[in-house]
Specification:
heterodimer; A: 192 residues; 6-stranded antiparallel β-sheet; 4-stranded antiparallel β-sheet; 5 helices; B: 367 residues; 5-stranded antiparallel β-sheet
Chain lengths: 192, 367
Amino acid sequence: MLIALGKCTIEIDDQTIPFVGKPMDNSAGNEGDQEGSVTMFRVRTSDELDIQYGIVSWPEANREVTLIEWHSGDTKYDSLKKGTGRLALSSAGANEVFQLRAMKYNTTSKKANLANVTIEDLNLWAQTDLVELLKGHGALRVGTKEELTGEDNKTKGILSALVPSGNVEAVAIAFTVTRILAIMYDYGLDIN
Amino acid sequence: MNVPLPVKGDVIELGGFYYFLNFTFGDQLYESVDTYLKNNGDNDWFNRIRAIHAEKGLALYDDANDPRFLLKEGLFPGSSIKAAFPGLSEHKDLWRNQAAELKDVMNNWSHGSIRPTHDLFLDYAIPLFDMAMICSLPIAHDLQRIIQRVRDFKAGKTFDEPAPQPLPTAAQEYAEKIADKVEEEIQRPPVGAAWVGEVPARLVTLKRQTLDITEAGKSIRQEFGDPDAASRKISILMKYFPIGGQLRIAPDGAIMGYVKGDKVLVGWVGDEPNIDKQEARGFFVNHKYEYTGSDVIDIETGELLSTLAEDSVANLVNGLKVWGLPEGSRINVSIYGDVVFTDPDTDIERKITLVHKGIWFPGHLPG
């Protein structure tokens, strides 16, 4: 499946293949390698980034989005090459929730890391109403984590998305906007 | 007889209409002035006035029906033929204010410095209509129809009408000159504008830490000219790419970079081609400026350049002073960053200096 998203395209594989590795979710009992499965998606941007990610499901851990292969791209995307910006989902009943935080350049540390972001920025980078787009690809709701899950902890105010368990498309879109397009649009840098 | 209406509203057609209207307005104003003076036995007025203008060091026009010449004469409080100008004795201040505004706009158009967009065409045609009304010239009626037509274009209306009768040759020649200028801009856009053509194969890296540009690990700084020129050019590139990044260089030295995912012409390795020290390139940006003697003001917003520009403008302002720009002068800037002064006496357009987006009002220049 090919999705056009702002200044990039996302090509999602039709098939899921086995994947062996160590889950990002390292809660008790998840320390070693597991054999999971992955659905890969490849993002190509107007500024020549070509990168492949996988949405990995684990038998004993939460799903995640991780770097599969960097094909080519400019140095501005180097943080992605190193694997920064992985995304972890967590289960919420029959659904899953994940945070919408974006790759932001920190002018002090000179590095890009995940940071809070407004829906207006996300819409600008996606060149569309992102919430509507995510819903069109299966997402249930977008809001603060507290609004979506009733959670009352230190991450309750973070903008997040709720998807039915196993959703691929909305996860791939949200990941692409918050990681790749955020860097394309120089999030955190003041450029006129 | 009604003059034709534009049917397409594109840059070339509106350029032709500007010329045609200007010519017709000048003709009608001349007729009115000439008839009055000849009826009063003054048959050689043009040569006499022209000699006075020459003595004062003012622009000399070959045609008595050049509207700039006529308006300039009408603007003189001491003009010996002021009684001949229609409407002047009844509406003295209004006439002079309108004429002064119109003369500046006409000058910029006549030098081909205005891109004939709908808005800019209206900025010319509306004061021309007002002046035609004050002077009771028949062209006012035609202008009203043409202004309405251009407002319709602006609102997105299209007109499925046969092309109007061709405009006079001189108007068509002017329109072709404008078309050439548009084409030139497409082929060689200013720094900061969208890149035209293929992505160049030569890949280089702009380095934040060393403020250098490397190709396969080796510095190519020397290609950017002497050390000062290289530093200046690299610091301008750093504005687009504050953390560095990859750039592509075309065989002619044009540098392409991706800015927010778009291909942009971000600079030149060597000297930018086709730069003329005297002559400005490109159409003016749609802002009016005034030099105060110590700063530059955006006339519409009243904002000062020194408070808004990203970098220090001390050198620029000093340069304007050294150049001898009179305090209170109106200046224009072309989209290539050429700062232009049109001498109100001689009507000659002169390029003073070149600015980049870091030392100009944010958002006024491309990029």
